[in-house]
Write a structure and sequence with these properties.
Helices cover 41% and strands 16% of the residues. With 268 residues, it is of the alpha/beta class. It has a domain of 186 residues: Alpha/Beta hydrolase fold, catalytic domain (Rossmann fold, 3-Layer(aba) Sandwich), CATH 3.40.50.1820. It has an eight-stranded mixed β-sheet with strand order 1-2-4-3-5-6-7-8, sandwiched between helices. Strand 7, helix 8 and strand 8 form a beta-alpha-beta unit. Helix 5 runs antiparallel to helix 6. The radius of gyration is 18 Å and the shape is globular. GO terms for molecular function: hydrolase activity. It comes from Halopseudomonas yangmingensis. Keywords: Hydrolase.
Length: 268
């Protein structure tokens, strides 16, 4: 599998298929492997690229340099190096934050955005939100990484019939570098681009699991601030929608990407 040196860091990526480019950006503690349920649906129609962000997967784990802006700049450098023209950007959770940062910093780059169970900021504003953030940071820093991985797997994939998936993802999360994982987690807290959403000038699909951490209504609020944007809610889905409801998610994504390829109809 190929690697690139970008911004002083060796980043691992995959590049498959032909057609319009689709860049898949994973979430915190994950990697490009987590898009395995989307590749069979996308590859007949698109050139599909995955990128392991710094500190994740098979990419380097430098001691510093972790921020959403830095992740987005790594994506920008990757897009330029690979000579991708207006790629469709798909990001889940932390990957959605990276996509928002990229689209607000460099609005000329994305052909479209698909944001999955994410948002344009992670700034606690209410007592309950402060408590949730504090709890997440506390347990991540105190508990051993295998314990964190086990808890996350149970939270994201709780059903008995998801036992095999749960075991796979628990093992993947155990493989994280603890220092890089914690640095990436801290990078999320206090980040936000909500005041710059008017810079986004491409179509946006926001996908929410009906049981995601963040209520659907919160996503509806920021979708209303975007121009060409729509919200799709996937039933019986938590935070890991592309994994727990891959068929429903893939249909939404393919329909959206196809609509982005259609020329606009103008009235005569």
């Amino acid at each position: 599998m190929p690697d690139l040196m970008l911004n002083g860091c060796r980043l691992h990526y995959t590049d498959q298929g032909q057609g319009p480019a689709v860049l898949l950006i994973h979430g915190l503690g994950s990697s490009g492997r987590d898009w395995e349920h989307q590749l069979p649906a996308l590859l007949p129609h698109y050139r599909v690229l995955t990128l392991d962000m710094r500190g994740h997967g098979a990419s380097d784990k430098p001691p510093r340099g972790y921020s959403i802006k830095a992740f987005a700049e790594d994506c920008r450098a990757f897009i330029e190096q690979m000579q991708l023209e207006r790629p469709h950007i798909v990001g889940i959770s932390m990957g959605g934050m990276i996509a928002f940062q990229l689209a607000t910093d460099h609005p000329q780059i994305p052909g479209s955005l698909t944001i999955i169970n994410s948002g344009p900021e992670l700034i606690p504003r209410r007592p309950a939100e402060y408590a949730m953030v504090a709890k997440r940071l506390f347990f991540a820093h105190v508990l051993p990484l295998p314990t964190v991985a086990h808890g996350l797997a149970r939270l994201l994939l709780p059903k008995p019939e998801q036992a095999e998936l749960r075991a796979i993802f628990e093992q993947r999360w155990k493989e994280n570098d603890r220092r890089a994982y914690l640095a990436s987690l801290r990078a999320l807290i206090g980040w936000g681009v909500s005041k710059r959403l008017d810079r986004i000038n491409c179509p946006v699909l926001v996908v929410s699991g009906d049981r995601d951490y963040t209520p659907v209504e919160k996503k509806r609020e920021y979708v209303s601030l975007l121009g060409d944007a729509r919200l799709a809610v996937v039933e019986d889905s938590g935070h890991a929608t592309p994994v727990d409801q891959p068929e429903a998610f893939n249909r939404l994504l393919l329909d959206f990407l196809a609509s982005c390829r259609q020329p606009a109809v103008t009235e005569s």
